[in-house]
Amino acid sequence: MADQCCASACGAKDTLNDPRWRKVLWIALGLNATMFAVEIIASIVTGSRSLQADALDFLGDSANYAISLGVVGMALAWRARAALVKGLTILLFGLAVLASAVWGLIEGVTPDPLAMGVVGFMALVVNVSVALMLYRYRTGDSNMRSVWICSRNDAINNLLVIGAGLAVMWSSSGIPDQLVAFVMALLGISGGWQIVRQATIELNELRAEGAL
Questions:
Q1: Which pLDDT tens digit goes with each residue over 31-63?
Q2: Considering the domain boundaries, does residue 3 fall inside one?
Q3: Long-range contacts for 134-137 (Cβ within 8 Å, ≥24 apart)?
Q4: Distance (Å, rounded) from C-alpha 15 to C-alpha 3?
Q5: Keyword Transport: yes or no (predicted)?
Q6: Which residues of 39-67 are buried (b: 16+ CB within 10 A; e: fewer)?
Q7: FRET partner for 67 with CA separation of 20 to 30 A, picked from 8, 109, 166, 191?
């Protein structure tokens, strides 16, 4: 019997098998892994909590892209399960960043604002480039949507880091750095929840259809 599927489902399958999608994921993986190394070193040298938060975000995104590459072409159930794992991971990273920001407020460290701005701008260039490459895939399944949400949040985070650097320079206080880390943590928690919610909906629909 011939394969029967609606246009949207077939379109999603074609997109997942698109070599351009895989290529974009590989590029995104390489760029994010590199920026994680750059930012984690910079956060240690400068004492910036927002850079540390962004570095952890790059690490989470690297894992995100690696998992996405692993499930490309698999059935929707496996892609939804992978998205659920990624969403929960992003939530945990958000909570870790939140804890780090609280600790930063207790310590009262004032980071180097110039280094924050320079590294933040480098990260912004990387994330905007990745977001532009992924833009066409933003309305796919939960797995593809999770990749888009991560890249979008990253670009926002970088703008916040640059803003925090300017605020630290102006105020000679580390408080703006910690406040931005708080905002980044909330963005991560919100993005992770969106991914978990959509993946859960997809899994419930598949279970109702007897596909699980």
A1: 989 999 998 898 888 888 888 888 877 877 787
A2: no
A3: 134/24, 134/28, 137/15, 137/21, 137/24
A4: 17
A5: yes
A6: bbebbeebbbbbbbbbbbbbbbbbbbbeb
A7: 8
Does residue 5 fall inside a structural domain?
no
Residue-level length of the chain: 212
Contacts of 8 (CB under 8 A, 6+ apart): none
Could you give the number of structural domains in the chain? Answer: 1
Which CATH number does the domain housing residue 35 bear?
A: 1.20.1510.10
Both structure tokens of 64: 């995100």
pTM of the model: 0.67
The verdict on residue 93 lying in a domain is yes
HSE toward the beta carbon, residue 188, CA cutoff 13 A? 30
Answer whether 98's CB lies under 8 Å from 49's CB.
no
**Tokens coding 63:** 């894992």
pLDDT 10s digits, 109-149? 678 888 888 888 998 898 888 888 877 766 666 666 666 77
